[in-house]
Structure formats: C-alpha cells, structure tokens
Amino acid sequence: MGLVIAGASAALFTACVSTHGETNNRQNMSAASQTKQLNPEHKYVVYQVFTRLFGNTNTTNKPWGTIEENGVGKFADFTPTALNAIKDLGVTHIWYTGVPHHAVINDYSAYGISNDDPDVVKGRAGSPYAVKDYYSVNPDLAIDPAKRVAEFEALIERTHVAGLKVLIDIVPNHIARNYQSLDKPAGVEDFGVNDDTSVEYARDNNFYYVPKQDFKVPAALNDYKPLGGEKHPLADDYFAESPAKWTGNGSRHAQPHFHDWYETVKINYGVKPDGSLDFPTLPADFAQKDYQAHFQFWSQHDVPNSWIKFRDIALYWIEKGVDGFRFDMAEMVPVEFWSYMNSSIKMANPDAFLLAEIYNPKRYRDYIHLGKMDYLYDKVDFYDSLKPVMQGKGSTDTLVSIQNRFADIEHNLLHFLDNHDEQRVASPEFAGDANKGKPAMLVSATISTSPMMVYFGQEVGEDGSEETGFGDPSRTTIFDYAGVPAHQRWMNGGKFDGGKLTDDERQLRDFYQRLLNFTISSDALMGAYADLHQVNRSANYQTYTDQQFAYARFSDKEKLVIVANFAETKTPLINLVIPADVIADMGLADGQYKLTEKLYGEYQSKLTVTNGRGSIDVELAGLGSLILSIQ
To answer: Model-level pTM?
Structure first.
C-alpha cells in the first residue's frame, strides 16, 4: 500500500517512526552482526502473487465487471503443477497477497457474512488492505466459501510439499470500517468492542475517535461513482459510523478526503494525538540484543490492547503453518510494537520470514535492529534510483553511494522491480518494454545478499494496461476482478507451461528462470561485494559510461565479475579494470584466468592480472549483462 499521510496527522506519524533518532541510527550501525537474523546459506527469492488474479482464465476484463463477468482465481488454482512451475522459476517463498478476508461487494450473506457498503469499498472486489476478518480468508478465493479457511490450509500444505515457504499480509496500521470477525477463536474480542468512544484517545482503545460527530462518506472527485455508477442497495452516499473514527492514513476528520484511505480506520498503538508515547521505550542497547531478549523485556511490561490483538493474529497464522509475513506500511506503527510483535513470532518460529513495507531510509536501522525485522523494502533509495535509469533518464552513478550508505544492512534490504503498488516495468507509463528491466533485474538480484522479489507476470512482461475500474492502468488492479493477459498466456488454461506465450515473452521468462536459479545457488552472492564502477568511469571514460554498471561478488568458493548495460545500444570494447585491492581480496595472483558466463554459457573472455591489477575485455549487447565466473 502506497504512502499518503493526511497533513493533520504528520505529528502522530512522526512520533510513530522517530522514537529513536539519528544518534541511535549511528549507534545501531555497529550492530551489523545482528542484521542477518535468518542466516540463509543462499539468497531467497520471493514470488508475489495477487491471489485472486493468479488462476483466473477469464479474459473479458470489463471495467467494474462482476465476479461472474470477469472471473476470479481460487486457492485451488495453485495446483501442484502450478507450484512446481513457480519453484522451477527459482523461487523460495510465495507471498500470497490478499488472503485475509477483506471487504468485498459480492454477496456472501448466505454464509453469515455481512454485506459491505460500496461507499467504503474501493473497487468491486475490494482492497486487500481493508481487512474485515483477520481470522478468516477472502471468500472469493474458495470453491466453497463455507470451507474457505480449510481450503487455504490445504494450499499451505501443497505449497510446502512443493518446497516453498508461505507468506501472507498483515496490515497493522488500519482495518476495514466494517470489521466483523466471524471466525475468531474463543475468547478473542473484535477490535473496538471495549473502546470508550466518548474520547478521542485512550491507551487501550483500538481506534481513535472524532467524538460527537458521525462519519460522512468523502465527496467524490472526477465524477467517481461506486461500482462505476451501477445501482446497489447500499450505495447511497451513507455509511453508519457514530462517532466517526480516524481514517487509516491518519485523517482526523469525520469526513475524510476522497484521496484518503477512507475505506479503513486507523489502529491506536498507544501513540497519543500529540505524538507522545503511552508505552515503555526500548533502551538503546537493545539494538544489539536478540529477539529472545526483546521478548523477555516485553514480558515484564503492560502494553496497549492493540499490540496484543495483532500479536495473537500473527501467532494464529503461524500455528496454521504460515512461514512469515509481509507487513503493510510498517513505519506508520511504532518500532516498539514491532519489537514486541516480531520477538513473539520468532519465539514461536525462529525461522519466520518478516518483511516490512517501509519508505523512510533514515529509520531503516531502527526497524531492523530495534524492531527485529528481517527485511525491508529497498524502494527508497535503490528502486527509485533504478527506475529513471531504466527509463533512459538516470545515471548508474547514483547506485554507488546507495550501496556504500547501506553496506552494514545490505542483507536486510529486499529488492524488486514490480509489485502491486508500483507501475509495471513494461507499462507505457514506465519503460514500455520489459526488456528494459533486464539489466536492472540482474543488478537487483546480484548486487547484495538480500532477497529478490518478483511480482507474478513480471517474468513474462505483463504491462498492466487494462482499464478495470477503480485505480489507473499501468498497475495490475488490486481492486477489481480481472484477468492478467501475459500471465494467462503462460498459465495456458491451467497447464502452467507457457504454451501461449509469444517468443519474446518466452525468452524473457527464460532469462528470469536462468537468473533466479543462479542467484539461489551461488555461493559468491552471499559473500563480499566490491565496486568496480567508479574506477572504470575514470579509466574508461570514453567506453564505460553512466549507462553501465560493474561490480565483483566473491567468496572462497566462487568469484564473479558482473557488468550490466542499461543502454539500448551495444557498447564498444571495454577494457574493464579490476583494481589491485579487489584482486588481492579475491586472492588472485598474476596470470591469466578463464572467464565463463553463468546464465547462457555462450560468452567467454579472460581476466589478465599484471602487477596485481586486473583487466577484462568485454562487449555488451544493448540491454545486455554478463555474470562472469573466474575459473
């Protein structure tokens, strides 16, 4: 979910993300040894699937189309064949996006589920980030909605049999306005049941309130009408909520703005409206302590009720076999809560994979060291610097300082090119050609020890160009029922064999498969990194430009030189320089070394080391890259 913060709530948001300042960030840099909490032997690859779109074979794509008109994918569509094909792509973890039961328009009242109001639902299928029941799953995804949780449990089992780990979303900052849990375990109370609604804030209230004011549906912009204007008995510009609650992105108005997250309400974690904290803070030295110490710390303190509710939700799904979580908008929730939450999860499953969506680089180290996150989105700065390079408007020079700035936490910064919030690389609004993402994909996947994430359809060049209802083209819809055309060609009616792909799409997927499988098996990619870009910008200024990018990755077992060309034209011959300090770090003596290219095996060259300094003659095709192994 992208970041939009209402101006009135800036102080509260700042309090949530800045419990610890720059001084602590600098202190935390010394805790680099604590960052690799999972200690994988090889890189991880996360495959994000938008679950209701993945298995849909319907190609109608009518804007605002119903579930009957446009179709929907099911848990059952993830067959052993499908899961094995995903595994063969080079994937280690699947993030099933949109699994928790969120607000939907489809009528499931026959199953005891209350109908949702289109005035506070975005799209016809609903946003996965407006969760209505955290102890259940989206009924759209089940063949038999009455057995929806059992069908998801069966998918967890099939995924594990295929050798893959399961991730789902937890959205701690906000929930649907119409939250009602039907499937909660005995003794669990819904959010807000015991709230004192006469006050704006109380520590153990689950929500913030606008006392004595009723909620009003936002004034629509640009002639927007719920469901595209289709008549619906609940679409009457009214939703009963008294008193009004703060909106998910922090708006404190009884009538939020149309661009606010008006379909959701904000959760109270014990941060007062003035930004002050109503819970204990962690001592600074806890940046160096493990999750057991964090768990012990919180066992000695009373915490706000919302903390307990979300901890129990996470542990419920861990017990069902979920292997980890992607936490939505984690920086809008206090870092102390994450210490409490994540240490509890790790006590139940030390290998749980904990990934946070976060966009504030100044707080990265707090959320890793104090919040005990395993991985954070590396959107700001890495992705945001790669995007203009792919578009032909940026320079690879910016990547050098980014790598240096985050060297101590490079393992924790997950890379991606596509996800549900971002424009598809192949979309006209982004790069217009999936091949322009190939050098960026190779660099993202090999520059660090961190995981790489791929969004379903990315590997076959999906461009997200369909006009499906709520939201804009260029991003595959998360709000409406739709088919995903390039992905459907790979799915081939459930054969999952790429039988209907074009030649270009097939070649692109082959590139992804070769690259990802290499990354999860390479020893060097879990080893050292050495920049080769700066020296070659100086030494080869006529042939090596800011549209190329080179570095070395090496371990005792494997030594690689990687060079990528972001330009669409072929490079002249480049005499790539390997500085003496890098040659020494790799343990190479003077002489000549054969180089083999690791993805296709067709390119060969040699490394010459003279007086401790190395050089390689390379030529790169337009948008071409080389992973050269030193033999």
So the answer is: 0.95
